[in-house]
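Minutes, project check-in

Agenda point 3 was the complex the collaborators sent over. CS summarized: four entities, 410 residues total, and the question is how they sit relative to each other. Sequences were read into the notes so everyone works from the same version.
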Amino acid sequence: MTENRDKNKGAKTKQKILKIATTLFSQLGYRGASVRKIAAEVGIRESALYNHFKNKEEIFLEVARDIFSSPFSLSESEIKELALRGKPFLQKFTMQYKMLTFDKNSENMFRLLMIELMQSQELREQFMSEFHDKSVKVLSEGFFLMMQNGLIRSADPMLMAYEFISTLFYIRLQVTVLRFDSKSTNALSTQFEKHVDFFWESNRI
Amino acid sequence: MTENRDKNKGAKTKQKILKIATTLFSQLGYRGASVRKIAAEVGIRESALYNHFKNKEEIFLEVARDIFSSPFSLSESEIKELALRGKPFLQKFTMQYKMLTFDKNSENMFRLLMIELMQSQELREQFMSEFHDKSVKVLSEGFFLMMQNGLIRSADPMLMAYEFISTLFYIRLQVTVLRFDSKSTNALSTQFEKHVDFFWESNRI
DNA sequence: GTCTATATTTGGATAGAC
DNA sequence: GTCTATCCAAATATAGAC
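CS then shared the predicted structure for the full assembly.
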């Protein structure tokens, strides 16, 4: 019992550190979120923090692991099924993207990515491969199928995917920027849907 | 003569500080570019730096003034003239955007903007108004004229402008990310033109 | 595991001689 | 205008008592 309670307390503190570090890193960046601030918010001394993590960077790496851990959950069969129906494929993909945009944790991770993007080469490379390439791959598969089935006009599926994802990203960035200052995102709340409609009307046959 | 030489030297040092500060701020951000580093690169002591600027923030503000100082040079009459011809309007706008993307100083300013975007509310507000709204205004005017003249399909000009600018921004971000690591932008070098072609084909009548 | 105390480094800034 | 010397604050990190 005592052993269990101790373990729980230990685990709890570590989790609390991670939770608070996530918030602070995503608001202030790596440099801005000092060990002092993190420890103070957790309610312990800085030295106590080093019982749970080797150093500041280790905390950051554990937090930053989450940045690219929200892959789109669209299986090959789902892609196929939805793409054959045309617009629903774009709607499904976009709604997942919109969900991430407004999800608290994903929002934090996206902000952290934007803050550190120009500070870390590794992050830049992951941004290109995990963030961009993966989305383009899924989307272009869908577009390819739609073209094959005469649902949309013929074009380079990769280019079309690029065009589609770029607007999603831009909306997400704007939403994140506005929400950072607790400003209303009303004007943007339906932008995702408008994008799908516009894109569909522009390219359907 | 002596007076003149002294003046020149003084002005030169101040300009040199600004030049080096620009580079360092746009690579390391405000926090990362320490007064120490700036002075060292300039080749003077930190204390000497304070003969030219009140403090670090003053240096930064003078550097950061440039971030939004590259407005598009499209007059009302130019917009009108080009928009009546359709695609050339988009080509002209995009080429100006592409120029900024690859211009060394504009690139630095864009990187600085991205680094500090999540750190400064003022920058976020200027990003929305100066960076986004202004471009949307110019573009939507053009689209409106094109619709009136039956060159493109009918739609909300503001939405269409949003769709168009979002891809330009995304390309610019990717180019900037790649160039930061001195990576090849070959794959992206014609993306601006491809975007114009794709967009035009999607919406022309 | 947490605390107090302390070491060490880095960064912004000023005083005063030249 | 620049230099040396110096100050002060903040930040990362460790040692050792409880």
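Noted in discussion: The radius of gyration of chain A is 21 Å.
Follow-up: revisit at the next meeting once the mutant set is ready.
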